[in-house]
Amino acid sequence: MKIDLKKVGAWFDDRLALTPIFKYMTKKEVPQHSHSIWYYTGSSILLFLMIQIVTGIMLALYYRPTLEGATASIGRIMTELPLGWLIRSIHSWSATFMIAFVMIHLLAIWFTKSYRKPREATWMTGMMLLVVSMVFGFTGYLLPWDDLSLSATKVGTNIPMAIPVVGKWVTQFLRGGDDVTGDTLTRFFLFHVCILPLVIFAILAVHILLVQKEGMSVPLKDEIEKKRVPALPFWPNFVLREVMIWLVLLGTVLTLSLVFAPSLGLSADLMAPAPAGVKPEWYFLFLFQTLKIFPANMGPVTGEFVAVVIILLTVVAIFFLPFLDNKPDKKKGKIFTWLGAFGVIYAIVFSIWSLL
Amino acid sequence: MRIDNAYFTRRKFLNSLLGGWLGTLAVTFISPIVKFVWPPFKEPDEVKLVFADYSGMKSGEVKNFVWGNKPGLLKRAEDGSFIAWVGVCTHLDCNVTWVADKKKFFCACHEGWYDENGTNIAGPPPKPLRRLETAVEGEDFFVRKPGAGAKA
């Protein structure tokens, strides 16, 4: 029996009505200008997300989220399973690259002011994705359950306590009780492999849909001058360029994973004193240093409370940035560009300072 | 349909009735879920240790004990009595350690220091270490939250 593929295709199209999507993709165009390079950061994040999903599922096949078994199960993955050490290393390096590219993506949009009307919601979902990515990193950091990850988690989950009333409630939710215990580990594993993936897919779907709906933004200057910007067909021209960049990034991650594989400490002891040199992942270092410079008490409240409130307000302000920066082509817009630059310098200086 | 002089239509009334009922139903399910997610595990009110393990401590010596899910610190004072603290930093909850040659408690996470009386003296800790009460009863050695002794 010969299967008529055209008929099969027509059968599916009848039921799923996919033709408009394919038509849209073949017609889609990507503007070409001096800032076009930043368009590629979005799809690079998707590459790292896909690597995280594949390697994450592989690791979860053998990982055991318990007080007694966690560290040993990672040891087993690294020593007994074929290329297990490399899978873990790729998962760790790809996480770093994913966060880095989310930040680059955000800064590119900040400095080109692409969040301006009508793309405010795209920016806001993007900020949510940044926060979710960082929570992914934070929960994943505990899973090896060694001394450093235990102390980092104690500190991280204690920070909400600085906020009166609701803070204690948040900390208990994160820890599964008043203290960091084996329950915290099990809980973080659940967040990391079940809840956060559901959340990230839901937000990502809206984010990508909005990008398709509004199309790619063009530079502010060209938009004001109503200049016609030359464009490149998305398929196949732009996709070909994306694939080339993906291959380079994949090669970079693989090389780093091979040469600099993460180590594994001894299994954490809840009763042991905190080890010297407790540090969070690199993308939390500037926040870590910010918390450190505040004095113990500032008048009636603790310095930690002031620091936490300032950090939270900053995040909220960045979330609503498109509404604060509502005249991007005027003098006010320049101020926000400078604030962005200040933020970058602040984060870099404080990150380096925390390592000294 | 609206009855004469009524504030709302019959449709609106029935919608609110059904909506309100569904909302109430949801809340009754949420309450046990919340109780399950926020577990009832609390810090202990007291722990029982074996006195023989600590009776040989010299004056000024510091030993650890297990206080629920965290370390506790026990110091023998000059007069032979015992002083106990919860062994976690009041800044961000890291486990502190006794530095014997400096006679101070130290937290490595953010370099917080406490003197030998548990008072915060340097770094970010906002408060002294949390004090616990001690009591010797026969061969048992109790460490309690302040005020918990009356109940026991």
Defining key terms:
heterodimer; A: mainly alpha; two-stranded antiparallel sheet; 15 helices; 69% helix; globular; B: 152 residues; alpha+beta; 6-stranded antiparallel β-sheet; 4-stranded antiparallel β-sheet; 18% helix
How would you describe this structure to a colleague?
The complex is a heterodimer of chains A (356) and B (152). With 356 residues, chain A is mainly α. Chain A is built from 15 helices and four strands. In chain A, a hairpin with a 2-residue loop joins strand 3 (297-298) and strand 4 (301-302). Chain A is globular. Chain B has one helix at 10-37; strands at residues 46-50, 62-67, 70-76, 82-86, 97-99, 104-107, 112-114, 120-122, 131-137, 140-144. In chain B, strands 1-10-9-4-3-2 form a six-stranded antiparallel β-sheet, with no helix packed on it. In chain B, a hairpin with a 2-residue loop joins strand 2 (62-67) and strand 3. The longest helix of chain B has 28 residues, at 10-37. Chain B is elongated and about 90 Å long.
Query: What is the oligomeric state here?
Result: heterodimer
Mean pLDDT of chain A, as a whole number? Answer: 92
Indicate the overall shape of chain B. Answer: elongated
Rough shape of chain A?
globular
Relative helix content of chain B = 10-25%
Order of helices and strands of chain A: HHEHHHHHHHHEHHEEHHH
Number of helices of chain B: 1
